[in-house]
Structure formats: structure tokens, C-alpha cells
Specification:
The complex is a heterodimer. Chain A is an alpha/beta fold. Chain A has one domain (2-62). In chain A, 38% of the residues lie in helices and 20% in strands. In chain A, strands 1-2-3 form a three-stranded parallel β-sheet, covered by helices on one side. The longest helix of chain A is centred in the last third of the chain and has 17 residues, at 37-53. The mean pLDDT of chain A is 95. The longest helix of chain B is centred in the N-terminal third of the chain and has 21 residues, at 37-57. Chain B has helices at residues 12-17, 37-57, 60-75, 131-138, 166-170, 178-186, 205-222; strands at residues 101-106, 110-112, 145-148, 156-158, 191-192, 195-198, 227-231. The two termini of chain B are 39 Å apart. Chain B is 36% helix and 12% strand. In chain B, helix 2 (37-57) packs antiparallel against helix 3 (60-75). Chain B has two domains: 9-75, no CATH class; 97-231, no CATH class. Chain B contains seven helices and seven strands, in the order αααββαββααββαβ. Classes of the chains: A alpha/beta, B alpha/beta. Chains A and B meet through strand 1, helix 1 and helix 2 of A and helix 3, helix 5, helix 6 and strand 7 of B.
Chain lengths: 64, 233
């Protein structure tokens, strides 16, 4: 299970990562902005959900 | 007041390259170095436009959104990419998540204070922002920092020559959400491994891929880790 920012989501595609959550954040803020706990929790929850629900390789979940 | 007439003039190309391990190094904007002059100028103009608008509207989120949009445009490929590996490994999860010890691994250079992978006199984030340092990092073997599951947030720090790790220093959860995962674990949503990991993704990539990462994976298996959350920067 991996989390990538949108700017580098193509790297996850190239590497055929099994499960990827793509976030629309700045470089260095993959899980969320500094101090924005609610957003960080959303990203972590989405990653854990994808971990459990993905049923095929290269599953990607792009967050808004 | 600074006598600007005494300063050497700088071309726009020199200006935009200066953010990338140059005189104005700011890795949040290093993407400007990779753009042609016109594209970089347009990117700067768009960002400044949102800054001006935010001064009136107070909508500073729009400024962040503008920077993110320019970052995505600069780093994203113009055409669809092709896989560089043959395999697409996948193992479905068949146990409930609370029964699978989960390890967090970040490439964001997070480590515990007092356990600096570069030694007790390790450089600061500012000190690693130089061309020589990034070159050295990219040819050096990766090292994995271990972070115990109960490490307080205040005992974590970060250093990385490839992105502005001051944000991770302010809030490690931005790239190493251990504190967030602890919250999930407290609510019974996940079971956490006793040890979690950080490394600097700007490292010798071939060595990482071919030798070191398989060794790390074996370590996790021997520690009975059932799942891993990897955070790229």
C-alpha cells in the first residue's frame, strides 16, 4: 500500500505498485498539509480502505 | 536599503534555476528549474496572480492550489507512461485489518532525534540543500531508521536533500503519519507493528531496488509484519 502525490503518480504506474492512493498535495506533504490532522486522517483511512478492498493489481484511488 | 545597481544582473533562466540548489534554493519551487523560460514565467505569473487575489479575498487556499497545479504540470509526464517493471505483484488481504500488524515506511527522511542516521553531528536541513550533497546522497547506500511505535511526535524530525523537509519537521505526519495511525489503532481500526521506518528516498536507486529493499522486506517478514504503508515524497 503506497501513497503518492499526484505530481509523481506516474512513478507508481511505472513501478506497477499493487495499491496506490494519489493525493493532490504539495511535494513533501503527501499525507496532508502541516497541522491539518483531519485531512491526514482522511488520507490514512483511504489508504487502509484500499488495502482491504483492492481486488486486483495496480489498484489506484485518486483523492480530491 | 540594498544598492541593487551593485548586484550582477541575472537572466530569468538563472533566476528560475536558482531555486534548484542555487542561490535561492527552495525545493518547493525547484520545479521551475525544469521548465523552459516561457512556461516558468507563466507559472510564476499564475501563482503571483492568485497571491494578489488572495490579498483581497483572503483565499490563501487558492494560492496553495495554484502552486500545486504548477507543480503537477511541471513534474507530470506529457504523455502516458509505460511500466518499467514486468511484474505487478498483488496479494489480497484475507484477514481483518486489526489482525495484520502494519508497518509505516516513509521515504521522507524522518528519524528519531538522537538517532540521526548521519551521526550525532548530522547536518541540518539547510546544510543538505546543495548540489554536492544531493549528488552524494544519490550515490550513497540507503539506510533505514527504526522508529518505535510509541515514539512521541515531538521526538521525530526529518532531513532530506530532495524536498523541503522543514514541513515534516513541523509536522512529521505530513509524510510519516504514525500519530494518525496510532489514533486509528486506539479506535481498533488497525494493529501497528512495534517498529516503523524512515529513509531518504534520494539515494542510490539501483542499490535500493536490487539489494537493500529486498533486505528490508525480509526484515519486515521476520518481524511478522503483515502489511506496510509506504509514503513517497
Amino acid at each position: 500500500m503506497a501513497v503518492f502525490i499526484r505530481a509523481f503518480a506516474h512513478v507508481a504506474t511505472q513501478l506497477r505498485v499493487p495499491r496506490v492512493v494519489v493525493t493532490p498535495h504539495l511535494m513533501g506533504h503527501t499525507v496532508g498539509p502541516v497541522g491539518y490532522r483531519a485531512r491526514q486522517r482522511e488520507v490514512v483511512d483511504a489508504a487502509l480502505e484500499l488495502l482491504m478492498t483492492a481486488s486486483e493489481p495496480e489498484s489506484v484511488l485518486a483523492l480530491d | 536599503m540594498t544598492d541593487r545597481s551593485a548586484q550582477p544582473s541575472m537572466t530569468f533562466e538563472e533566476f528560475r534555476r536558482s531555486f534548484y540548489y542555487g542561490s535561492r534554493t527552495d525545493l518547493r519551487f525547484k520545479f521551475l528549474a525544469s521548465l523552459p523560460d516561457d512556461a516558468a514565467a507563466d507559472a510564476v505569473a499564475r501563482i503571483l496572480r492568485t497571491v494578489g487575489q488572495a490579498c483581497d479575498t483572503g483565499d490563501w487556499d487558492a494560492v496553495q492550489d495554484a502552486v500545486i497545479a504548477e507543480q503537477n504540470a511541471a513534474y507530470g509526464p506529457a504523455d502516458p507512461v509505460e511500466a518499467t517493471v514486468a511484474d505487478a505483484p498483488f496479494a489480497p488481504v484475507r484477514q481483518p485489518l486489526p489482525e495484520l500488524p502494519l508497518a509505516l515506511i516513509t521515504a521522507g527522511g524522518v528519524f528519531r532525534r538522537g538517532d540521526d542516521p548521519l551521526g550525532p553531528d548530522g547536518p541540518s536541513q539547510q546544510e543538505v540543500l546543495g548540489r554536492e550533497h544531493i549528488k552524494r546522497a544519490l550515490s550513497s547506500p540507503p539506510s533505514l531508521s527504526e522508529i518505535s511505535v510509541d515514539t512521541p511526535l515531538a521526538e521525530l524530525t526529518a532531513r532530506h536533500p530532495g524536498y523541503d523537509a522543514t514541513s515534516a519537521q513541523r509536522d512529521p505526519n505530513a509524510v510519516f503519519p504514525l500519530d494518525v495511525l496510532r489514533e486509528v489503532a486506539e479506535a481498533g481500526g488497525v494493529s501497528l507493528a512495534s517498529t516503523h521506518y524512515g529513509f531518504v528516498g534520494a539515494t542510490a536507486q539501483g542499490r535500493l531496488r536490487d539489494r537493500v529493499a529486498p533486505e528490508w522486506a525480509q526484515r519486515l517478514l521476520e518481524a511478522k509484519v503483515g502489511a506496510a504503508l509506504l509514503v513517497a515524497t
